[in-house]
Design brief:
single chain, 8-stranded parallel sheet, alpha/beta, 360 residues, globular, 34% helix, 8 strands
């Protein structure tokens, strides 16, 4: 029986659009099939995505960038290298404008489910493109669906808390709301020399009326579950005591999971599960989004576990047989185990970070 309080946004066109992005090839479909194989689609209300309109995308992105996305073609890649951020990380691909509209539309569809009170929780694992800036693509992100979703949530909810669990700093979202006192941005991320995007220090706290509304919680490579949850628990509840949100948006980037080829953390699904449960305890309308995650099988495992957590439906440890079953060998188990990597974080460094955030 479906849970009327949980909406899950997905449809074949959305999956195809996300699958077409080179770095994410087939990830959306692999994830959706695992969620379906566990029977979780029967426990949520599945909503097809409605593509965003040009007007909606211009709600955040500049007119020049939007016009560029509408006409950019792969055969002109060499001519436009690095224009509007299109280049190595964000290559021009076929049907780029269609993909942008579909990805943005999926998160807007999820946000509308919350503002219309169709659901208390909305999920779009195809969303979470947090690096895109107002006038450029960045870090595999062509459109900032998060900013667009937050803007829509503001039509019904006054104060919004944005939480970013991706291993990379949520710079695009932070920059969008840097001057806003109505959006608190809280980003947990790895920060070291040479690690993308290189922003998100504790001292970055917002500007103008948005001063003290931006929270950055950086950590070093190799962080484990215990350390991550220590940071998370030490900051989330105290923040919510001061700033009581009317709605929450959480980006659950899977690139902080152990073994990710781009990330450098050592987390497992259990850490994310704990965070998600604590976020649900805030008891406000909440939008959960995907994000990074470049070990596609581990990303699928994580978002399946989180879906099950949100509908309170425990899963078997053994992956059920389905179309993509062979990808989960040789163990065919849902669990992602932590690696042997030693954490560069110490109790002292964690406490110093927490103290710096609390001292604001």
């Amino acid at each position: 029986m479906s849970n009327p309080e949980v909406v899950y946004v997905s449809d074949p066109k959305l999956l195809a659009c996300c699958d077409a992005v080179p770095i994410l090839k087939h990830r959306a479909t692999i994830t959706h099939h695992l969620i379906a194989a566990y029977g979780l689609l029967n426990k949520v209300k599945v909503l097809p995505s409605v593509p965003a309109s040009e007007e909606e995308i211009r709600g955040f992105h500049s007119e020049e960038y939007v016009k560029f996305l509408q006409v950019a073609k792969p055969d002109s890649q060499e001519l436009i290298e690095d224009e509007f951020g299109l280049g190595f990380d964000c290559p021009v691909i076929d049907n780029l404008w269609t993909i942008v509209c579909r990805v943005a539309g999926a998160s807007l569809t999820a946000a509308r489910a919350l503002t219309s009170y169709q659901a208390k929780i909305a999920i779009n694992w195809c969303g979470g493109w947090h690096h895109a800036q107002r006038d450029s693509a960045s870090g595999f992100c062509y459109v900032n669906d998060i900013v667009l979703a937050v803007r829509h949530l503001h039509t019904k909810f006054d104060k919004i808390l944005y939480i970013d669990l991706d291993i990379h700093h949520g710079d695009g979202v932070e920059n969008a709301f840097l001057f806003s006192p109505k959006v608190i941005t809280l980003s947990f991320h790895q920060l070291e020399a040479g690690f993308f995007p290189g922003t998100g220090e504790e001292k970055d706290i917002g500007l103008g009326k948005g001063r003290y509304c931006c929270f950055n919680v950086p950590y070093k490579a190799g962080i484990n579950n215990k350390q991550f949850l220590y940071l998370f628990k030490s900051i989330l509840y105290k923040l919510c005591e001061v700033y009581v949100p009317d709605a929450v948006v959480c980006q659950c980037g899977a690139d902080a999971i152990s073994g990710d080829p781009i990330g450098g953390a050592n987390l497992t699904s259990e850490a994310f599960q704990s965070c998600v449960l604590q976020i649900c305890n805030i008891n406000t309308p909440t939008l959960f989004l995907g994000g990074g995650g470049y070990d596609k099988v581990n990303a699928a495992k994580l978002w399946t576990v989180l879906t099950s957590t949100l509908v309170s439906s425990p899963l078997s440890a053994e992956i059920p047989e389905h179309e993509f079953f062979p990808l989960y060998g040789p163990s065919f188990e849902l669990e992602v185990t932590a690696g042997l990597r030693k954490s560069e974080n110490t109790q002292k460094s964690l406490d110093e970070t927490i103290q710096a955030v609390h001292a604001r």
